[in-house]
Amino acid sequence: MITAQAFSSIQAIKREAWNDCFPGSLEDWDYIMAVENAGIEGFEWRYLALFKGSDLIAAATAFTTSYRLDTTVQGIGKRFTEKLNRAVPGLMQLHLYAIGSPVTEQCTAGTASHIQPAQRPALLAQLLSLAQQDASRLGIGLIAVKDVSSNDDDWSQSCKAAGFQSMPSLPSAMLPVPFGSVDCYLGSLGKSTRKDLRRKLRSPGPRVEWRSAIDDVLPDIMRLYEASLARSDLQFERLPPAYFTGILRQLGDRALCVLYWLDDQLVAFNLVLINEHRLIDKFFGHDLELTREYSLYFRSWMVNVDYCIRNGIELYECGQAGYACKVRLGCSFQSNTLFFRHRNRLINNVLKLVKLFIRPDRHDPALAAAISEH
């Protein structure tokens, strides 16, 4: 007999059992534990689990928060919704229960290694049912499944069968790295991009330092983080200092922070997760006044590509922003879908209309191109 339980801490589930459901994942039990311990303001964590006897057979992360419906809206659309929200406070804000995580790009539901693929759809349906029961118990009407990969047909079909609406979400940018050298990578790019990168890299640049501990420079890192956050229309969460230090401590050699120095001034940092197959770019913070002069973003990009080449890492996962630039840099894009449903039928019908306006690809041509490419 299968039993379903929702927990408020990942510690309620054994590390080995959880990781067995997500083999090879960099964002595994240790990452989730670090996120939970970081105390990210405005979020409460939920962990959905299915057991057969005492054995964990399926699991997913979830969270609750107060959600701005225009989180993925940019440019003119964002200015309009901000004016609307000032005129009618709370209009764009709803209490949300979401399967997924605010600090991972895709929603994955894991099943234990002994579970047959044919069993997965039924288990996902049970996880969705558990989430709806948990949300109802918490008094939350809006339920979502955040960033389901277009490769995960089981999730998509389960959401549709449960009556969830769908809309495009931010696609994930990925750079396959089959190159034998940085020169080979540059040779794969368009002529103008290749020429521009070579010119940028010829000029003097910052000193690069790879770190597994950043406590001594944490104030500078948070200064750069806050400056970068202030420029972003798409940031969903505000990460506290404990996120950056906790990730590095909890994940050991699977997490590093790359620091960029001009003399004794820290001008950029890049938090990355690493294993033998992937490098995940979690956050890049930089000093805007110096970014153009020293091409900090492109230098960080080339440092990461070079690291992948030297260490035989075949995939660089590089985030959900800057799509126009990443097209030039040779990325491909993995489409993601947001599924949602409100228990109140009237609100659910209103959201069918609202989603036509708040689709992220409606306001960003480069983003629309990245979504349609897939």
TrEMBL record:
Transmembrane segments: none annotated. Gene3D superfamilies: 3.40.630.30. It comes from the Bacteria. InterPro entries: Acyl_CoA_acyltransferase (IPR016181), BioF2-like_GNAT_dom (IPR038740). Residues 192-322 form the BioF2-like acetyltransferase domain. This is GNAT family N-acetyltransferase.
